[in-house]
Design brief:
The structure holds 2 protein chains of 2 kinds. By secondary structure, chain A is mainly alpha-helical. Helices cover 76% and strands 0% of the residues of chain A. The longest helix of chain A is centred in the C-terminal third of the chain and has 34 residues. The chains are: A mainly alpha, B mainly alpha.
Chain lengths: 209, 128
């Protein structure tokens, strides 16, 4: 078990200036690279937010945002995603301590809350399409389904990624490579909640304000 | 050895969480703040206690605050040297996001403003 301890994240030498410490540990470099991906992903969402902000009044005589959105539904969705962001952090603490059972349990809770979020979102979409407020009804609804649907697709990908990480913990164990991948997953999952803050503020609460 | 670890403790920038207990505290504090800000957002959006025209701005402020809370307490963006590059790229990302969103909104509202109303356009066609 001791051979699996992350060698590269060893103590930073004390008293050595930053410029003379040599290359940064791999954990920090990998997280920075993934951080750049996340920023580019958020710029994609910025484009979708801009489209929504521009088109949210273009209802073409169809249902408008105030008539369609149920705030209580969104509050539950937000609660699920926020709680799963927190349990993802708990999972990372457990993984850093190499506690297998605890890691699996928190991962299960995280994935469960993510699936609850997705099923709530899916039921909302199905209800809207059933009402005749599908993405083809107006420019407003096209931009709504694109923005919220892209976020939902990201959450789906995140849950698949989490399942793969748990399989890798099972087969490879907590080696540094697996921990780094889990670190990237947790960054991804927290970033999705940041995007969701924008979604519930602009789309759902903005409609009622 | 003891002196060294004390120096390391002092050198650590605020917000760079290392030990498990510190990280647990950071996540719990972040969750509490996020719950508070989310509840405030939902309450403010339908509140009759707030001057109505100010609600969109209040919502924007609450959302930006919550994004900040998430960045610091969940994504562990701090002022430590390890995340200098992350902060610089984040600043650039925020710049691009602002440019895309507000630029689009300004341009399209300007276009809408300059567009002639439909009935005037029809009148012009009839007169021809």
């Amino acid at each position: 078990m001791n051979t699996l301890v992350d060698v590269v994240s060893a103590e930073i030498p004390v008293g050595v200036p930053l410029s003379e410490r040599g290359p940064a540990p791999k954990r920090i470099v990998a997280a920075f690279g993934f951080w750049l991906f996340l920023l580019s992903d958020i710029i994609i969402f910025a484009g979708l937010f801009a489209a929504y902000a521009v088109l949210c009044g273009a209802t073409d005589g169809g249902p408008s945002a105030v008539e369609l959105f149920d705030k209580r539904h969104v509050l539950i969705e937000t609660g699920c995603l926020l709680a799963s962001s927190f349990t993802c952090g708990m999972m990372m603490i457990a993984a850093d301590r190499r506690e297998t059972v605890l890691t699996y349990s928190w991962a299960l809770v995280t994935a469960g809350l993510g699936i609850a979020f997705l099923s709530l979102e899916f039921s909302e979409f199905a209800h809207m399409v059933h009402q005749g407020a599908g993405p083809t009804r107006s420019a407003f609804l096209s931009s709504f389904f694109t923005l919220v649907g892209t976020h939902g697709a990201h959450v789906t990908a995140g849950i698949a990624w989490l399942a793969i990480m748990m399989a890798q913990v099972g087969t490879l164990g907590f080696r540094p490579m697996v921990i780094r991948r889990m670190l990237c997953f947790s960054l991804f999952w927290h970033a999705l909640y940041i995007v969701w803050i924008g979604v519930f503020t602009v789309v759902y609460l903005g409609a009622h304000a | 050895m003891n002196a060294h670890s004390e120096v390391a403790e002092a050198e650590r920038a605020p917000g760079s969480h290392q030990s498990g207990r510190e990280r647990l505290r950071s996540y719990t504090l972040g969750l509490a703040l996020a719950v508070l800000l989310t509840a405030a957002s939902f309450a403010a959006s339908s509140s009759s206690y707030v001057w109505t025209p100010s609600i969109p701005i209040l919502l924007a402020v609450l959302a930006i605050a919550q994004m900040g809370v998430h960045l610091v307490f969940f994504l562990h963006i701090s002022s430590s040297p390890d995340s200098t590059n992350n902060i610089l790229s984040l600043a650039f990302g925020i710049f691009v996001v602002g440019l895309v969103i507000f630029g689009s909104m300004i341009i399209v509202s300007n276009l809408n403003h300059n567009m002639q109303p439909m009935d005037q356009l029809m009148d012009m066609h009839r007169q021809r």
